[in-house]
Amino acid sequence: MTIKTIAFIEAGSPGSHIFSKFPLPRLGSVLLSTMLRDRGYRVRVFIEDVAEPDWAFVENSDLVCISTITSTAVRAYAIADRIRALGIPVVMGGPHVTFLAEEALEHASFVVRGEGEGPLLELVSSLETGRPTLSDIRGLSYRDTDGHPVHNPPAGFIQDLDSLPEPDFSLVHNWKPSRSYPVSTSRGCPYGCKFCSVIQMFGRKYRFKSVEATLSELKHVNAVSRATKFIVDDNFAADLNRAKEICRGLLAEKIKMTWSTQVRVDVARDRKLLRLMADSGCHTLYIGFESINPRTLAAYQKKQDLKDIIYSIQKIRDHGIHIHGMFVLGADTDDVDTIRKTADFARRHHIDTVQFLILTPLPGTPLYAEMVENKKLIHTNWSKYDAHHVVYRPATMSPVTLQVETFKAMARFYSWKYILKHLATLHFHYAALGVFGKTTIRRFLKNLEFELQELLPQT
């Protein structure tokens, strides 16, 4: 077949939450589209959380690639069905379909499992020339001529991240330079949190871009946009010396930018790194505290304790860096008191922003396998697998109680006191976030009966 035009679609989120006002696209579609553009194809990327796709372009493409996580899978499948009905081949990729490839093949022509850079380019070549044959493309799932699903062996992980191009956001439909820019400088994670699929997607070993390549990309995106740069690595400070070199490079090359990233609590043990991060423009650190319940931290296999959490908050704040704390509520070791104490803890320790997330068993994680085996899932309406809805039966409270108490905890944190405090200190971003949070929570509570229908016992 002839392939000249390729559309990439990142399926939209099913509903709003407190941070949906600030959508951050995943990098996969942008990176893959850049690689195909560089090979001569006409390519555009449509991110539904950013703007409505240009369906005329999509429906006149020779190939459509759809990226999805679990919570967007229902929407992604609907798009795939619409496109395939027009006779256009559809390729699906992303964490959800990596682990549920046969489900995805009910809607897609092909599924790329895991890292897509190698398999997708080989697939496009195969569709055009017949080489390589489909059976030779590692990481690819498809149906044979008899309609049976075929899952080729997994593809290996890309070891040289410097070999990848810098993602070109000009390919994204209606992208505005004022938006926060995501930047990836590493892949993988050696930790084993039960609810996380990073290891299954990207491996247990960290792989890094060189400091030189990282600084080159940061310089480039800073020239394109003065908006905040978000380094999406699962742990930017996994290699402390490398993180320091990047910060020193930003300072030495006078790359003046505001940036944020994700780290673990152990970043606070290195005060020199914290100072370098602050001096080089780090605005906010996103930290998975996960819980203040010691038993829950052990159950999550988090390898940190409450003292570590408190110490990290103190030291990070001492360096003038803001903190976004993420807590996961609803483990078998949690009860209602745990949820309420978590909200009090976040307020008492002056965490700048929080997400109180509901424990969610995503396909591909040890938690999902455990809950399937123990028949704890309430349903598999994937649109509710967004960490804001209860989809399983907790051990110490009802699903309804966990749902309601989690939203009450959010309301307790994003209070009028929170809003007025930030207005008084001229932190308008946080004040606006508090207002948006209150509006979102009020909307949920207003529609409480409808939202909780799936969680009520069936008679």
Overview of the structural elements:
The protein starts with a strand and ends in an 8-residue tail after the last helix. Strands 2-1-3-4-5-6-7 form a seven-stranded mixed β-sheet, with helices on both faces. Strands 8-11-12-13-14-15 form a six-stranded parallel β-sheet. The protein has a two-stranded antiparallel sheet with strand order 9-10. With 459 residues, the protein is α/β, with parallel strands linked by helices. The longest helix is centred in the last third of the chain and has 19 residues, at 428-446. Strand 12, helix 10 (271-279) and strand 13 (282-290) form a beta-alpha-beta unit. It has helices at 27-37, 55-59, 73-84, 95-99, 101-104, 117-129, 198-202, 211-224, 240-252, 271-279, 294-299, 306-318, 336-348, 366-373, 399-413, 416-424, 428-446, 448-451; strands spanning 5-10, 42-47, 63-67, 90-93, 110-112, 140-143, 149-151, 181-183, 186-187, 207-208, 229-231, 259-263, 282-290, 322-329, 353-358. Helices cover 39% and strands 15% of the residues. The protein has two domains: 5-151, Cobalamin-binding domain (Rossmann fold, 3-Layer(aba) Sandwich); 176-455, TIM Barrel. The protein is built from 18 helices and 15 strands. Helix 8 (211-224) crosses helix 9, helix 9 (240-252) runs parallel beside helix 10 and helix 15 runs antiparallel to helix 17 (428-446). Residues 175-395 form the Radical SAM core domain. One of its GO terms (molecular function) is metal ion binding.
